[in-house]
Design a protein that fits this description.
Elements (H helix, E strand, L loop, with lengths): L5 E5 L2 E6 L2
Antiparallel strand pairs: 1-2
Length: 20
């Protein structure tokens, strides 16, 4: 899930942009 927002850790995806 790549959305505009802050960078969160999702499993092995460290640089995943998730809107919050």
């Amino acid at each position: 899930m790549k959305l505009k927002g802050k960078v969160f850790k999702y499993g092995d995806n460290v640089d995943t942009d998730v809107i919050i």
